Amino acid sequence: MPDARPISMQKIADAVGVSRATVANALTGRGRVSADVADRVRAAAKAMNYVPSHAGRALRTGRSTLLGLVVPDFSMPLFPDFVRAFERAAHAQGMALLVGDAMSDPAMQTQRVQDFLGRGIEALIVIPLRGAPFDPEAFPVPVVVVDSGANAANTISSDHREGGRLVARHLVELGHRNVQILRSAAQSYVSQDRVAGMRDVFDEAGVVYREDGLQPDFDSGRDFALGWRMGDATAICAAYDAIAVGIISGLVERGVRVPQDLSVTGFDDLIWGRIVSPPLTTTRQDLTSIAEHALAVATGRVSGSRLSPMTLVVRASTSVSRFSSCERKIA
Question: What is the pTM of this model?
Fold first, then answer.
């Protein structure tokens, strides 16, 4: 029967004919090891399928190399993208990531955190639930909060308010002067920031706008579109792509043309927005930048909070307003 035990540094040392310390130095890049010996050690380690022991490293250094990440709800399509970005950042730094789903339940968010603390995590990263109190000072490990600039506890997030301004400027430049804003009905700092940015631009440009709160999902957007009285509105700004895609679906069912009759915008650049017809104009978060800064703070390499710029992604769901002078000139 083959030996299923993990390959140790001592086995590599025996195979190459060097000391265990030499193997350790060759694999970590520390100490004095000739290039020839280092190459032989790494080749042997690869051939023997050597995997570094994180448990052993924790015993030597007193650090677990484990990070905990708690997200609000995996059923919301943005959060798997967040997890992927954090997993890549953690892997690049030789750390392991434990991921927990709060399932939109504050009690479950607390339980996930406690579970991770019991597993000896080195630091905790939390994307907090909307409206659920979360105190990062209440834990014995460093805590990084990924939320919004409107949250005083925020460590790193996208600049959601500037994202709202990007969307609003785009619509103003297309001649839209009567707009429907759709924010999250829940107590979301992110939604509040995005809508505040839209208001900044619309107020300055003299745009008439109305606001309604919806759940941040496809069905809420579709139901709203099916029952909505358009009036003079020429555009809908949704605070989330899931809402915006639902809006487009409902409008198409009603026979409303997008963007000829009504422009639609979203937030987050989800895959849904790229495959809906017409493709959705939206904003994109730099999740890689967010994950890298969060891990740098979590591991003590940097300090302080920051906002990551968002990017406007213009697609076919927006065009000049049907009431604008721009349209009359084109016609």
Answer: 0.79
Residue-range definition of the domain harbouring residue 137: 64-156+287-306
Angle value at C-alpha 211, between 209 and 217, nearest 5 degrees = 130
Give the count of beta carbons closer than 10 Å to the beta carbon of residue 89: 22
Ranking 28-32, 93-97, 261-265 by mean pLDDT, the lowest is 28-32
Mean of pLDDT values over 248-254? 97
Tokens, residue 91: 């892997």
277 contact partners, CB below 8 Å, separation of at least 6 = 248, 252
- Please report which residue ranges of the chain form alpha helices under DSSP H: 9-16, 20-28, 35-47, 54-61, 78-92, 106-118, 160-173, 189-205, 218-227, 241-254, 271-275, 287-298, 325-330
DSSP state of 281: B
- Here the CATH number for the domain that contains residue 263 is 3.40.50.2300
The answer to whether 205 touches 167, Cβ cutoff 8 Å, is no
Q: Which residues lie below 8 Å from residue 152, measured CB to CB, with a gap of 6+? A: none
Q: How far apart are CA 140 and CA 11, in angstroms?
A: 38
Number of domains in the chain: 3
